[in-house]
Amino acid sequence: MLLLPAIDLKDGQCVRLRQGRMEDTTVFSDSPVDTATRWVEAGAKRLHLVDLNGAFDGVPVNNSAVEAIAKKFPDLPIQIGGGIRDAKTVQAYLDAGVTYCIIGTKAVEDPEFVKDLCAQFPGHIIVGIDAKNGMVATDGWAEVSTVSAIDLAKNFEEAGVVAIVYTDIARDGMMKGVNIEATVELAKSINIPVIASGGVTNMDDIIELCKVEEAGVTGTILGRSIYEGTIDLAEAHKYVEGLS
Predict the structure, then answer these.
(1) One of 51, 130, 168, 172 is an active-site residue; which one?
(2) Where does the pLDDT of residue 241 fall: very low under 50, low under 70, confident under 90, or very high at 90 and above?
(3) Domains of the chain by residue range
């Protein structure tokens, strides 16, 4: 089970939102690089970055912070999402040292775009599916579509997508536990590895996720829980590594 610390960037700061609402923001740090360093020192094998401004504006806004983290840790895999709507942006991130680009809103609007990116940048494209009651949300979670998460994911099975990051936005930032049932249902419905996101609160959640790893849930993103201390990232890594 891959544990991915989340660094959500808004106006150059590290923040966490509740249910994706920009007006419900908690600032945890003014230094994204210091935050990344903290998680790397706790054993992080990959970082999950989100440009929140980019997710709402449709274009990257916090590029400098992302580039600074990639420069500080050139050998650490980094995945970034938020506002990636064209191939030029993907190329710029890869050139800056980012390993994976996460396509969210654009994947809903234009699945063929994702397939084209996978052909152009093989091994570097992840699809982010954010859902509420099983239906896909877009534009920084401001809009809920009529497309189901499973139907959307099936579009990409033969495209070469590295993984699906699946977020239950009803749980995100609420510290109410991860929606394991919905995550496993998605993982069993497709042949793409699934990374769970949203609501992971304590070690019990990680233990339960490890139990369903064989179903295709290969990682989980940790946000508010590691910032507020309900999960000790170093201890969580020890637990996960002890299972292998």
Answers:
(1) 130
(2) very high
(3) 2-243
How many helices and strands (H and E) does the chain possess? 11, 12
Distance of alpha carbon 44 from alpha carbon 53, whole angstroms = 25
C-alpha closest to that of 184 among 214, 204, 145, 160: 214
CATH code for 2-243? 3.20.20.70
Distance of CA 149 to the CA centre of its chain: 15
Q: Report the alpha-carbon distance of residue 220 to residue 96 in Å, rounded.
A: 25
Active site residue 130: yes
Angle at which helices 87-96 and 63-72 pack, to 10 degrees? 30
How far apart are alpha carbons 5 and 224 in whole angstroms? 10
Q: Is the dihedral of CA 179, 185, 188, 189 positive or negative?
A: negative
Pairwise pLDDT comparison (134 vs 115), residue with the higher score: 115
Q: Known catalytic residue: 8?
A: yes
Of the candidates 24, 138, 158, 166, the one whose C-alpha atom is nearest the C-alpha of residue 15 is 24
pLDDT of amino acid 175: 58
User: SS3 for 1-68, per residue?
Assistant: CEEEEEEEEECCEEEEEECCEEEEEEEEECCHHHHHHHHHHCCCCCEEEEEHHHHHHCCCCCHHHHHH
What's the CA gap between 207 and 102, in Å, rounded?
26
Distance CA 169, CA 108 (A): 16
